[in-house]
Amino acid sequence: MVDASALSAILLREEGWKNLAPYITSAVAPDHVVKEVANTIWKAMRAGMLAEQDAQKAFDLLLCMINRNLALEPETEHLGKAFEISVTHGVTVYDALYIALALEKNLPLLTLDKVQRKIAEKMGVQVKP
After folding, report:
1. Distance separating alpha carbons of residues 24 and 47, to the nearest angstrom
2. Is-contact 31 73, C-beta < 8 A?
3. CA separation for the pair 7, 35 (Å, rounded)
4. d(Cα 83, Cα 67) in Å, to the nearest integer?
5. Rounded CA gap, 129 and 121, in Å?
6. Where are the domains of the chain?
């Protein structure tokens, strides 16, 4: 189970990305992860952190991962649980979707988001790294 923060860090080769890469050889995520990560790539390009051609390469790699290294789950199937987590713990529905999916699939969660990590651990989800 991988969230957008970890997947973005890998694709953008942020500090520590090599430590995360082994966890996504066969990852699962809600389908909105593609939009979140694509937006992060775009933001990095707009901020001048990435050349347009490098942004395109990162985006292309993201698309290549789908159904190879990254299985996508329909977010609507987990939205009810995510909303419940969001209301109870004060986390965004976006972040709660990752926690809900990890809970429902009994999978560890790969995230760099500290708030999401704390809530997931509180709910009994194993968090990596």
Report:
1. 27
2. yes
3. 12
4. 26
5. 12
6. 4-128
Q: Computed from CA positions of residues 12, 13, 17, 20, in that sequence, does the dihedral angle turn out positive or negative?
A: positive
Residue 61 has a pLDDT of: 97
* Cβ-proximal residues to 53 (8 Å cutoff; 6+ apart), any chain: none
Q: CA–CA separation, 113 vs 20, rounded Å?
A: 13
Residue 129 confidence (pLDDT): 84
CATH class of 4-128: alpha beta
> pLDDT value at position 4?
97
Residue ranges, the chain, pLDDT below 50 = none
Res 94: pLDDT:
94
DSSP string, the chain: -B-HHHHHHHHTT-TTHHHHGGGGTTEEEETTHHHHHHHHHHHHHHTTSS-HHHHHHHHHHHHHHBTTTEEEEPGGGTHHHHHHHHHHHT--HHHHHHHHHHHHHT--EE---HHHHHHHHHTT--EE-
Q: How many CB atoms lie within 10 A of CB 105?
A: 12
Give the pTM.
0.94
